[in-house]
Write a structure and sequence with these properties.
Length: 196
Amino acid sequence: MQMKLLQKRIVKDGQIEAGNILKVDSFLNHQIDVSLLEEIGKEFHRQFAGQTVNKILTIEASGIAIACIAARYFQVPVVFAKKTRSLNIAGDVYTAKVESFTHKNTNDIIVSKKFLSPGDRILIVDDFLANGKAILGLAKLVEQAGATLVGAGVVIEKGFQDGGKRIREAGIDLHSLAIVEEMDTEHGIRFREETL
């Protein structure tokens, strides 16, 4: 899929709000356009076609739908990190701290040790990349498990924030389907050229 479809949808239905917030809740992370997600899943599969992936890892809640659609193309299960420990998570867990740019809080994310193993080859998938903390936190879980991190796929990267730079400097193979270079209410949204 040429990501122009995604870019057009971001321009058409995305809303720019104060504090560098880009709301795409009408089609990506509250109400979901499943047809668009199908194309996103196909594109992630194409981007990582040369890699062996046996699990997709994401974080609740917005990444789950995207990860599930992508997993159909890889034909692998999805594991999602929970932000709160619940009664149905028994036994040992991997854990990392993640600071949310949008929610302005820090969560301990957890995954049961029975779902990540040393032989796993993990692809991280998420909806947004701002400060990079979610992906770096998920990467820590992969490292704790002794698994291999194949890479990370992100639907929308805020290129004017430092998250993408942090992740690439950490040596993670990052593929962002749309990189927003600039956005403001007066001029709208400008995308980085290589994502066109």
